[in-house]
Amino acid sequence: MLVQTFLTRIEEERGRLLHWAPLFLGTGIGLYFGVSREPTMTVYAGLVLAILACLTIARLWPWGIGPVAIGVALVATGVCLAGARAHLVGQPVLGFRYYGPVEGRIVKIDRSQSDAVRLTLDQVRLDDVGPRNRATTVRVSLHGDQRFLAPAIGQRIALTAHLSGPNGAVEPGGFDFQRMAWFRGIGAVGYTRVPALLLAPPEPGFALAVGRMRQAIGAWVQRVLPGETGAFAAAITTGDRSAMSRDTIDALRASNLAHLLAISGLHMGLLTGFIFQAMRMGLSLWQSVALRYPIKKLAACAAILSGAFYLALSGGNIATERAFIMVATMFVAILFDRRALSLRAVAMAAVIVLTLHPEALVEPGFQMSFAATTALVAVFGWLRDRTRNDGAWRAPKWARPVLAVVISSFVAGLATAPIGAAHFNQISHYGLAANLLSVPVMGALIMPLAVLAAVLSPIGLGWLPLKLMGPAIDWIIGVARVVSSLDGATGQVPAPPDMVLPLVAIGGIFATLLRAHARWLALGPFVLAGLMWMQVTRPPVLISATGGLVGVMTTEGRALSKPRGEGFAALSWLENDGDPADQETAFARAGFTGAKGRMRAEVSGATLIHLTGRGAGDRLADACAAADLVVLSGKRTTPRPPGCTVLDRATLSDTGAVALWPDAAGGFRLKTARAQAGDRLWTR
Q: Average pLDDT of 14-33?
């Protein structure tokens, strides 16, 4: 009886199978990224056979079991797509630390977290490194005096740099930079402190020419609008944030307005929506055209072309590509006389993005973008259907735009809040108010003026709309600074367990797609995710991959063994703890005792000593006599004393970052980042 009821429910959803396709496809992709070992060719062959078998079943028995077979086939397809993508994008990865000459061509310019100019180079040549071990694409941060180089896309440069392969997570289960670098084709990262030298001027080529055009437009915008105003304008028009100060970016993040900088769904939607409406209104005034041609479809074509141009201008990153696919899908629906804003269009866009870029599933941009879009389409669709009923309350016409902004900001913020909190460990308490004050300005003034500036630029009048944009941009930056400075503007939360976000996604899909009383099933995944997050426990001890930093949990929060150095690991640990403190504050906590170079901590009755500095290896025997575990930031210069547990640089180079829990025997139980990441293409 239960099976029959289940099949009946499945049969009722036959007309909406496309709506469910992203869930099953995403499940398969998630399974690929969740396994600890790379699937073998035998596994892929078995999956292909399973796909063929499921499609055969769906063909022979289209009713009842057929939709279930299609769902299973989509899950298997997701695993195969992710595996194929991982093998196709693979590039050589530098397997050792390198210091020496580096020569390459600039293909991207941005800024690092430390606010240094960062260059991505392709066609790389390293001194005395063979082709099999040489990374073909590297990313280098420029420190020190670089006045001899004005970076431009397409230039060939030479520099002396420290390079290494992309690092793993700063703690077991943390953000996997190795995986991200693998899918972006980056084989080595590093820095230089000596001036870079120009070897050759920018090379020809369409992609490089587009990059130089982006640079030129950004420079022109900043000449017209100097300071932070111009930097903001350049960021939203070309995607280049390199001129923005860290203080402004932090204020935008704390006020939940950082999404205004990312060229994604909001910008692409505002731009193409404005082009669509303006083109449609303009053609409707041309009587001979309006009566003979489908002006709505012509306007949709113009919107798609403008979106494609914006995609190329912004650098074609994955977030913007995802946004373009979404809006293009909606405008193509108009071309085929279908409803543009529908869950079917959103599902089709999600399937396309996951097929082209399966790795996007685990990135916050994809998750937040589709969560917000799905929630907005579902809520406004429900409101549209409800207002069609006789007797339903309708807002006055003058209030509808205001009400639409309030509802859209609230719904989008609610849909993306758990995702943003999980990835960035931060909640903006006044984000709704900041968005209500800023998003209408973005849509009604800034984006239309940006389009007008592009239209008037060929005749030399593009500066005028840019000047008019200035006060509107200053308003948004001012709102961000005021809101971020309020007491309690942000709250910190600890990093959730791995299963929390998948459960939130399943709950959101159930709430959106299930009908009538069945929607109450969505409460199950939501409640389970909340309980798991509330009960999360952070590691009592964390050790960096170099052994240069140790953090122990105290009643005040995590105490760190050093006030400076290993800043990225320190910041990541504290953020994942849900702790707003900085590294110096964490060092001042009562967790470690002792002198510099020999810090001691007591964890649940077990003693840990952290040895750093010159001659640290010579002090190993003395430390082992007084500790259950010794962390050595350098190399061992003496044999390890019997019965002493030592984590030195050589050991940590194999294990990666380490998390420790005290065990019942008075020692420590270890979990390593390398074991957590598994044997995957990007960890070899």
A: 87
% of the chain surpassing 90 pLDDT: 31
Q: At what angle do helices 318-335 and 364-387 cross, to 10 degrees?
A: 30
**pLDDT score of 391 more than 70:** no
CA–CA dist 551, 573 (Å, integer): 8
Q: Report the distance separating Cα 363 and Cα 357, nearest Å.
A: 11
How is 190-244 classified by DSSP, letter by letter?
Answer: EEE-S--EEEEPPPP-HHHHHHHHHHHHHHHHHHHS-HHHHHHHHHHHH---TTS
- Cα dist. 193→24, 165, 412 in Å? 48, 19, 43
Note whether 192 and 166 are within 8 A (CB).
Answer: no
Q: What Rg value do the Cα atoms of the chain yield, rounded? A: 27
CB atoms within 10 A of CB 179: 21
Q: What is the DSSP letter of 443?
A: I
Per-residue pLDDT, 390? 62
Q: Are strands 490-492 and 426-428 parallel, antiparallel or unpaired?
A: antiparallel
Q: Residue 218: count other Cβ atoms within 10 Å of its Cβ.
A: 23
Strand partners, 164: 189
C-alpha 364, offset from chain centre: 4
Q: Which residues have a Cβ under 8 Å from the Cβ of 670 and sit 6 or more positions away? A: 655, 658, 659, 660
The tokens for 463 are 């500066």
Give CA–CA dist 633/646, Å, rounded. Answer: 11
Q: What integer is the mean pLDDT of 550-568?
A: 91
Phi/psi for 210 (5° steps) reads: -65, -40
This model's pTM is above 0.85: yes
User: Using an 8 Å Cβ cutoff, are 634 and 519 in contact?
Assistant: no
The rounded distance, in Å, linking the Cα atoms of 610 and 543 is 10
Which amino acid does the sequence have at 467? K
Alpha-carbon gap, residue 541 to 558, rounded angstroms:
9
Residues, the chain = 684
User: Cβ atoms within 10 A of the Cβ of 667, count?
Assistant: 13
Contact between 619 and 648 under an 8 Å Cβ cutoff? The reply is no
**300-320 confidence digits (pLDDT tens):** 999 999 888 888 877 666 667
Helix spans in 388-430 (H): 400-424
Q: What value does the mean pLDDT take over residues 155-168?
A: 90
